[in-house]
């Protein structure tokens, strides 16, 4: 036996761990040198023994005093299940030496439940005690019980209590439960806003919920009606700051009838100047369809739940000198591309605009054989079809195209043998083109925008080598005259331009001295001043540009000869910074991009309709 009991050393075989059966006996048939004995019921027996000692007051070394009730217990047990008590008894606090410790902010029945959990590992959670129990567990840092209470509340969440659960969870820093309750509120908002809890919400909470893009409503009128019910529940105290709530309602997206019958006629709105300004903004947005891009705000962005999303449409272009017919839409929120109806023909160097009533127009461009086009096509996003419209008077490739006050303006370009200074505009009402005053200088590849009732034509090329210029030409339809404005900081052609928050941005392009550029500048119309902004990550010649949700998206373009980009960069004006956020299905340059609203699901075209017939024709 002496040899079996001699000490082992690290160089020898390590101890073996042996599985035991229910009786604690090894299952191995061959005897091992040693085995580890483990009693499965030992922890339970210890807890049972400690609980029995607590119930009889044996060996208790501290009493918790709550609301005049004393609970004898053991410091070691308290410190083992609660970091709160461990810190209390471990540090040089007065409580570490006291036989009686007073606990404030907790109800006596909850302490009794938590002590029962400490000594038995079990606790009963009910609808009646869950809030008080969670508060106590949170204070004493009994995290398993707190989490169990959160799970219980989540399981019993419904339309009548989700708001209360959200606010309760926020007050007790239960972030996961708070977010789940908020998600429930947003998803079930049509039912939740009918509950008494909604009428009792604070102004800040109403703003938090209705400002969220994930709010699930069929139409924006439902949001307005909900906040009016909230206002009417306590008009006296809520009317003064009601404009802070109304700011989050997307009034521009309401129907004109609802604006007139319900918004304009409400007494609180009539008597509040800030509310009247919001109403005026909504009316202008609906009246001035073709200036809606200039009036972007969070209130003009559709909620996804209404079935409408704002996407970027990318049309045509060139990929490694191959002219494309492809048309795709890009949802920046989801980062997803979707293939749309192809163009009737391959084209690049064309113009693309979207009207205020969400109709897309494409004009001009260059065919694969190098000839210029004078064709005009209209795209219907509902039925995903292209329809041919009246052609321009002059073929134009590398033109500027913009929508201004109901007309499509085609400016400059190349007609096959020379640059153009001519300008013509298209009337959707009559499906016809008419010439207007020509530009001061003929240009190809300009970047053009419409802003505040005027056209702004920036840069372009005037020489055979396509070298860019810094010229800025402005057309006022009221005076029917062109003016030259402050020139750009950098001469460029083949750039992209857009309007964001009152500034005209000119992006990328080409000049002989700089070649393809990543430089960006913007024009302050009020001050007639250009200023540099942060450059893009990549140099881009003839990219596409669109604005979605107050951010500039630049797609594709050329880095250099025969090197085409498929990347998408996004610009944040608040931070003056760019980041690459995605890729296009195909690398390309000379494409055109616009932002427009599209239904998430498209209905089938009526078979006997013009759209249905167009959809049936091969493109």
Automatic annotation (TrEMBL):
Keywords: Kelch repeat, Repeat. InterPro entries: BACK, BTB-kelch_protein, BTB/POZ_dom, Gal_Oxase/kelch_b-propeller, Kelch-typ_b-propeller, Kelch_1, SKP1/BTB/POZ_sf. It comes from the Eukaryota. One of its GO terms (cellular component) is cytoplasm. Gene3D superfamilies: 1.25.40.420, Kelch-type beta propeller, Potassium Channel Kv1.1, Chain A. Residues 60-127 form the BTB domain. The keyword Repeat applies. PANTHER family: KELCH-LIKE PROTEIN 31, LD33804P. This is Kelch-like protein diablo. It comes from Branchiostoma belcheri. The lineage of its organism: Eukaryota, Metazoa, Chordata, Cephalochordata, Leptocardii.
């Amino acid at each position: 036996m002496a040899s079996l009991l001699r000490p082992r050393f690290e160089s020898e075989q390590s101890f073996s761990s042996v599985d035991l059966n229910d009786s604690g006996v090894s299952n191995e048939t061959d005897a091992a040198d040693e085995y580890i004995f483990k009693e499965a019921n030992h922890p339970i027996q210890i807890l049972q023994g400690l609980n029995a000692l607590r119930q009889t007051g044996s060996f208790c070394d501290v009493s918790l005093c709550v609301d005049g009730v004393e609970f004898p217990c053991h410091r070691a047990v308290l410190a083992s299940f609660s970091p709160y008590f461990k810190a209390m008894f471990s540090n040089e606090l007065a409580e570490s030496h006291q036989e009686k410790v007073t606990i404030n902010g907790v109800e006596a029945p909850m302490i009794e439940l938590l002590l029962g959990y400490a000594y038995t590992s079990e606790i009963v959670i009910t609808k009646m005690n869950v809030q008080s129990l969670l508060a106590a567990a949170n204070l004493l840092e009994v995290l398993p019980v707190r989490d169990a209470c959160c799970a219980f509340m989540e399981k019993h969440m419904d339309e009548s209590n989700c708001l209360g659960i959200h606010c309760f969870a926020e007050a007790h820093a239960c972030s996961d439960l708070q977010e789940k309750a908020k998600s429930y509120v947003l998803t079930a908002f049509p039912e939740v806003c009918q509950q008494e809890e909604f009428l009792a919400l604070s102004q800040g909470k109403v703003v938090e919920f209705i400002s969220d893009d994930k709010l699930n409503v069929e139409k924006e009128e439902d949001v307005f009606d909900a906040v009016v019910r909230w206002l009417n529940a306590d008009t006296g105290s809520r009317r003064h700051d009601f404009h802070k709530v109304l700011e989050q309602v997307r009034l521009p997206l309401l129907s004109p009838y609802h604006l007139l019958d319900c918004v304009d006629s409400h007494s609180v709105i009539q008597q509040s100047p800030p509310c009247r300004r919001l109403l005026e903004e909504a009316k202008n947005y609906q009246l001035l369809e073709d200036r809606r891009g200039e009036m972007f705000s969070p209130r003009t962005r559709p909620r996804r739940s209404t079935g409408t999303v704002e996407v970027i449409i990318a049309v045509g272009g060139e990929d490694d000198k191959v002219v494309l017919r492809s048309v795709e839409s890009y949802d920046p929120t989801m980062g997803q591309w979707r293939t749309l109806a192809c163009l009737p023909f391959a084209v690049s160097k064309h113009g693309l605009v979207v009207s205020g009533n969400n109709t897309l127009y494409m004009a001009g461009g260059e065919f694969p054989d190098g000839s210029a086009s004078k064709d005009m096509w209209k795209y219907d996003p509902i039925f995903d079809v292209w329809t041919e419209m009246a052609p321009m008077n002059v073929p134009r490739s590398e033109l500027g195209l913009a929508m201004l006050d109901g007309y499509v303006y085609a400016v400059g370009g190349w007609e096959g043998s020379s640059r153009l200074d001519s300008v013509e505009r298209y009337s959707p009402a009559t499906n016809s083109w008419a010439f207007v005053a020509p530009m001061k200088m003929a240009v190809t590849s300009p970047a053009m925008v419409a802003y505040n009732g005027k056209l702004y034509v920036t840069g372009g090329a005037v020489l055979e080598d396509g070298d860019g210029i810094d010229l800025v030409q402005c057309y006022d339809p009221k005076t029917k005259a062109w003016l030259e404005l402050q020139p750009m900081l950098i001469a460029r052609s083949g750039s992209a331009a857009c309007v964001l928050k009152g500034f005209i941005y000119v992006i990328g392009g080409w000049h002989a001295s700089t070649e393809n550029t990543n430089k960006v500048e913007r024009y302050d119309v009020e001050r007639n001043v250009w200023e540099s902004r942060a450059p893009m990550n990549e140099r881009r010649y003839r990219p596409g540009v669109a604005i979605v949700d107050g951010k500039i998206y630049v797609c594709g373009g050329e880095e250099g000869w025969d090197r085409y980009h498929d990347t998408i960069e996004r610009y944040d004006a608040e931070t003056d910074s760019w980041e690459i956020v995605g890729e296009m299905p195909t690398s390309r340059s000379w494409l055109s991009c616009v932002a427009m609203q599209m239904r998430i699901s498209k209905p089938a075209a009526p078979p006997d309709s013009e759209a249905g017939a167009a959809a049936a024709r091969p493109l």
